[in-house]
Amino acid sequence: MKPHHVVGILLAGGASRRFGEPKALYELDGKPFFQYSLDALQENAEDIVIVSQPDLIRQIHRQTTYDVILDEEQFRGDGPLAGIYSAMKHIHSEWYLVLPCDTPYIHAAIVNQLRSYTERHPDKDAFVPHVAGKKQPIIAMYNRRCLPAIEKNLKENCLKIGMLLQAVDTMFIEENEWNHHEAFRNINEKDDLSFS
After folding, report:
1. Which of 37, 165, 31 is nearest to 111 (CA)?
2. Residue 20 three-state SS
3. Cys bridge to 170: 15, 100, 126, 133, which one at CB 3.0-4.6 A?
4. What is the pLDDT of residue 16?
């Protein structure tokens, strides 16, 4: 394994209750949401794995050549933390670059900037943007060193990623480091696609 080998994790298994239909497959300008995150990962990761749910896995698999997996059975349905854990168990790497499927304004330059922190601060365990007053733990980088803490939290049903960030050596990358705040905007409802 090369130093700073990076696996991209695309989380595409959310319930999308507020959105009204699976966000991962919703098309914006002729392209499904998940493809925007996939495009951003392709330029910045040596391998990519997509973590989805049973209802979506076949549809997503038909639209990509990358591995599409389910959460590990014991943690299935336990949210983003389970997705990150399952991808780490599926592909061994030093670093994991996590993106959700509902940030269609994300782009490769932002992801490249995020990846760059792993070389400048290799002893840190996680890099998490802090944009518009919000921490962005599923647009983030995690070292494999986080895996034991992730597993412990899952077993203890501590599913909020904020709990993980307290348990590992996390560097929050502040707002003034990022030029394109719009790239971090996640879509929860269809109205979120309209600019005010």
Report:
1. 37
2. coil
3. 126
4. 59
